[in-house]
Amino acid sequence: MKFKELTQLSIGEVVTKHPELVRVFMDYNVDFCCGGDRTVSEAIEKDTDEVEALEVAADKAIEQAKLFAVGGTQKSLDAFTNEELIDRIVNTHHRYLRETLPRLSELLFKILGVHGEHHPELFEIHRIFGGLKTELEGHLIKEEKQLFPQILKGSKDVAQLIKTLEDEHDGAGEALHALTDLTNHFTLPSDACVTYGATYDLLKALTADMYMHVHTENNVLFKRF
Question: Is position 71 within any domain?
């Protein structure tokens, strides 16, 4: 599928179906959070002057997201077994969160101390991220110690637990939207230092990874149950 075929859909719908486009929209300063009911066409025409470059980047992202390596071959996520999906979730997305969340917490605390006086939004960013970090840490344990072992044992009685986890995904999505808005789509202020830039870059990367993480669970693995 080409990106132009998606442009009359709402941008909220598109990032749900194609989370690989989140990073593209962020790179071109296209708002995919607020005004998520806008069509993709309306959003990119309003938010960027680099429409053609965005379209090229979007097509490349869609193409690269079609196939994922597993067992020495490449196949779509839909073709992964439950075991392969769980392995990918744990060893790609969960590992990433375990490495990134503590680092981001440290960086945010550091820039809050240095820049908080002149950038009061950092207090709210720090608060929201702290809540997100706590929720995600508990969420990973629920999946790894409760849901995934049941799935691997062949249990079909997991619907209620999946509903709880999907609700937690929604909460994480709301927090990421708020962080995107508060950081003005990860735009650095004029007085930002190197650490400020590293913090926003890592927040941006975390947001992109979370969209793919949630997509893999909600729209592929969880739908099987």
Answer: no
Residue 73 included in any domain? no
Residues 44 and 117 in one domain: no
C-alpha–C-alpha distance, residues 21 and 55, integer Å: 10
Q: What is the CA radius of gyration of the chain?
A: 18
Is the residue at 72 inside a domain?
A: no
- Tell me: the pLDDT tens digits for 12-58? 888 888 888 988 998 898 887 765 678 999 999 999 999 999 999 99
Distance CA 122, CA 120 (A): 5
Task: Dump the DSSP string for 138-182.
Answer: HHHHIIIIIIHHHHHTT----HHHHHHHHHHHHHHHHHHHHHHHH
Distance (Å, whole) CA 17 – CA 19: 6
Q: Tell which residue, 174, 24, 1, has the closest CA to residue 11.
A: 24
In a shared domain, residues 174 and 111: yes
Domain enclosing residue 139, as ranges: 80-224
pLDDT for res 93: 96
Picking from 30-39, 99-108, 148-157, 188-197, which range would have the lowest pLDDT averaged per residue?
30-39
Which tokens belong to 224? 């099987």
- Any domain includes 75: no
User: What is the value of pTM for the model shown?
Assistant: 0.85
CA distance 70 to 76: 10
